[in-house]
Amino acid sequence: MTQKITVGLMLLFLGTHISITQQAATAQTPTPPASTTKAICPAQLGTSIDAVINRPSFNRVRWGILVQSISSGQTLYSRDAQKYFTPASNTKLLTTAAALQQLGANFRIRTSIYQNANGVLRVVGRGDPSLSDTQLQTLAQQLQKKGITQIKQLIADDSYIQGDIVNSTWELEDVQSDYGAPIGSFILNENIFSIKLIPQTIGKPLQIAWNDTNEATRWRIVNQSTTVNKNQESNINITRDLTGTVLRIQGQLSQDSQPYLVTLPVVDPNYYFLRSFRTVLAKQNITLGQTLVLNGGSNQQEIAAIDSPPLSELIKVTLEDSNNLYAESLLRALAIKQPRVQNKSTADIGLDVIKTSLTQLGVDPTTYFLVDGSGLSRRNLISPEALVQTLRLIAKTPNSAIYRAALPVAGKSGTLKNRFRNTPAEGIVQAKTGTLTGAVSLSGYVNGAKYEPLVFSIMVNQSEQPVRNLRPAIDDIVVLLTQLQRC
Length: 487
What we know:
By secondary structure, the protein is of the alpha/beta class. The chain has helices at about 40-55, 90-105, 135-145, 170-175, 215, 270-285, 310-320, 325-335, 345-360, 385-395, 400-405, 465-480, and strands spanning about 5, 10, 60-70, 75-80, 110-115, 120-125, 150-155, 190-200, 205-210, 220-230, 235-240, 245-255, 260-265, 285-295, 300-305, 370, 380, 430-435, 440-445, 455-460. Mean pLDDT is about 90; it is low at about 1-30 and about 30-35.
């Protein structure tokens, strides 16, 4: 059985030591079962929450909290709710809310192939985050059914999404990691690839097995790893050089270790797409000659196309799995109906649409400031007030059920699957997680049996405490909310 580890890469000489015995970065630590407590009256809620955030270990921690009734908007608890915080992936709540409002639940992202008069084929990518090798095969089969057996020239038109393929405010470690994969007109297999590290006899370098043979030719490997005795600790360090063409693998695996799957971002999404498509076409007995990337051009007859799942499903992946690439793709999709602006990226236009859409919804535009759609940037600023307003107001729209169904459920699904188990919150809290170094957040809904439905946002910033200490405290507050009753 192959185990998977998400490895954060940094540039050569800035490599970060990765212990492969640790869980992947996206894993959530299970919440310890909470002790049974009596029901809480609304008048007691403030004192109970204060008792959590005033613990001595949190003396230097900055908390932002807002709890309101969904129906009336009455505030049950507030602490620095109007202040800005680094939101991490709670940013995705604003991005997806705007996407639903602007594009509709049935919106799909289309990838098309056009045949021009001179016989040249032009494939137009529009930033579909769900496109995979399976969909490429469908496109190739459509071409085969059209009687196409040879393509003289295939042009990849990447003009649909303009701007940098990675956000300039993301940190170096992020853009070298799979969770910071590049975003452009062409996205295939979430713009990541993987290698498998396999132990050999003691003293021998680890064997490197490629899942993608095309990608194997793209990289030069410097393998400085080794296989060690089963009693020794396993650890792996992977670095990438400035050219983006050399991978250095260091560290060791014990001889009895299972193979480990290391996931990495592609360097050039356009040519990654073209290399993969050439392979898929060959399997359909279609030969492909020259390939090139152009920014713009005329499209004539569409002869093949594949659509993404509907937006309702894309949003579910975005929120439930906290998928950064999906969130950034949706941000750019928001620009679809907007006029092009010279020297303005598609992502920036999408940010403008988020503000317009949320303002129309009733969210105060001064309560947040965004620079990306995923929350990976440390420059995003969101107040608990903005998150609560968004959650409460979208709950009053026809899109409410779709939006809420996309959120992780406490103890049941997504990034909350292993949290809140065996607590009163299990199954009745729907919320979005957020985690960056020094910043942890959780915002969502509480559907208690003995009190009216609530909306909440809890944000922690400027903390030296590890996530394993902050997250249980946040969970304790949420459990308190589930124990409210009228009295």
